[in-house]
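re the bet — no i am not wrong, look at it urself. input seq straight from the record:
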Amino acid sequence: MKKIIIMFISCLLLFNFATVRADDLSIESLSAILIDSDSGQVLFEKNSHEMLPPASITKIMTMLITMEEINKGNIKLTDEATISELAADMGGSQLYLEYTEKRSIEDLLKGVAVESANDAAVALSEHIAGDYQLFIQMMNDRASELGMKDTKFQNANGLPAEEHYTSAHDIALMSRELLKYPEIHNYMTIWMTDITVGKNNDKVRTISNTNKLLRRDNRVDGLKTGYTDDAGYCLAATAKEGSMRLVSVILNAPSSNERFDEAMKLLNYGFSQYKKENVVDSNEAMGEIIVNKGDIDKIQLVTKEGYGQLLPKNETKEFEQEINIPDNINAPIKKGDKIGELIVKEKGKEVKKIDLLADQDVEKITFFGLFNKLYKDFLVF
C-alpha cells in the first residue's frame, strides 16, 4: 500500500536577510570544510579532498574506536590499561605516563581529549586491540567503512610518519561519527582538570584544553586541535545552535590564532545563513496498520529516525513522503519490528529511506482471548 504526502517546507523569513555566498568567504588555510553534522551536507569547502598530514586530529579516530568499543561492551571506562614501554616513550604532548603503571580508560580518554596526550592514545590503542599495529589496522578498516577515501593512518596519535595522511573531508566524516556518542562531550569540553599519574600514583598533572574556541563561544563543544611542522596548525571544531550542529575543519592554517578564527568564521557563516528544517521527527507516528490474529486489532507505526535538511534562510523546498506498508500484518509482533518504509523524495528523487517500526508488542490471540473478543463483539452488535 502506498500513501503519498506532499510536504511544503518554507524558510522564508519575515525580515530582510543579507545573503552571504560561500564563494565570498576568505579562508587562508590550505584546506577547509564546513558540514551539517546530522546530514553530512557540505556548506563550504576549499581543497577538501587534498591529502595532508593531520597531526593530532588523528586522535578523533582513536577516540571514535574507543567510544565504539565502550558501546559494544568490550571495554569499560573503569578498566585499567597497563602502560607499555612504547606508550611511555612516545614523547610530544603527553601525560608522562610511566612504564608498567596502570591507568583507567576514562583517564586515558580524558588525556587524549583534553591534553592531546600521545602516550594516552597509544595506551588506549594497545588495551583495545592487544597490539599497537592491530589497532592501526582497526583505524584504517574503520576509515574504509566510513568512506574516508583520502585517508591512510600509520599511528594513533598523529606524530609525523610517512604515508600518514587524511583530508578535511574525511576528518569531517569521522567527526560526524564520533559526535553520535554525546558522552564524548564530557571530555572534550573540560577546560582544565587534574590527573594523577605515575606507578605509585604520586604525581598530579594539571591538564588544559588545547581547543581555545571553548572559551570564545559557548556553542562550541569540541573537537580536536593538531600541530606539527609538516601539518601546520589544524583544527576540527563543532558547535550547536538550537537543533543544528555544524562541524568545521581547518588544515594547515598559517598560525594558531588563524585556525581558530577561520574555524569560527565558517561556523558563524553556517549558523547565520542556514536553518534546520525537519521533514520528519524520530519516533513520529505515521499511521495505523491492521493486525490479524492479535490480542489487539491495530498498532501505530513510528519512524526509526528523523530526517531534516539545512536550507538557506531565503529558500523554499517541497518534499514528498511515500509510505510503503502492507494492508495488514499477522501477530505476533515485537515492538521495534520493521513493518514498512517511509521514503522522502525531493523533486521525485529519493533522498532518504526510513524504517517504520511497530510501536508495541502484539501477542497472538489465544482461544479464550478470541472467544472473549467474539463475545464482546456480539454484545455490541
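see?? Residues 29-253 form a domain with the Beta-lactamase fold (CATH 3.40.710.10). told u. also Confidence is low (pLDDT under 50) at residues 4-17. so pay up
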